[in-house]
Amino acid sequence: MKMQSHTAAPAIDRLGSRLAARLDEDMPELSYDLTERLRASRMQALAVKKPETVKVLAQEMSLSAGQAALKWGGEGDNLWSRVASLLPLIALIVGLMVIQSIQSENSALEIAEVDSALLIDDLPPNAYTDPGFLQFLKTQQSEPTEIR
Q1: What are phi and psi of 63, to 5 degrees?
Q2: The dihedral of CA 31, 36, 37, 42: what is its sign?
Q3: Phi, psi values for residue 144, rounded to 5°
Q4: CB-side exposure of 131: number of CA atoms within 13 Å?
Q5: What's the pTM?
Q6: Rounded Cα distance, 42 and 14, in Å
Q7: Which residues, 6 or more positions from 87, have their beta carbon under 8 angstroms from its beta carbon?
Q8: What is the tens place of the pLDDT at every residue in 59-99?
Q9: Which residue stretches of the chain are H helix?
Q10: Exposed, middle or buried, 115 (CB in 10 Å: 0-12/13-18/19+)?
């Protein structure tokens, strides 16, 4: 038995549609026995109908060292689909840059607080290098001051 190519499938579908239309035209003239046999044959044909093939978007798959990778391809292979696939990466990079900017600004503000306390206070600069003193400064700033 010969294998049919994918290019012959539309021609076979058209032939089947014309045959079904012709049978539908002659339907009123057919006997009940014949219409039941045709209905049973249609049910059998639908039961053994081959599943439709799914279009594959990736045209190639490469296997290397136990890893698989799909390559660009398929019907949607145009500039817009490539740009759309890069949008999440661009959003991630922009988000990381914003986070880095905020972190550096917060760090600069903390350093400015220590510098301003150093310039205003009467303590020697060596006191600010002590980790315990920095913790003391942070707790003093967070506690409410009493009104005298």
Answers
A1: -115, 130
A2: positive
A3: -70, 145
A4: 0
A5: 0.34
A6: 17
A7: none
A8: 555 566 667 666 655 555 678 877 888 899 999 999 999 99
A9: 9-25, 32-47, 79-120, 131-142
A10: exposed
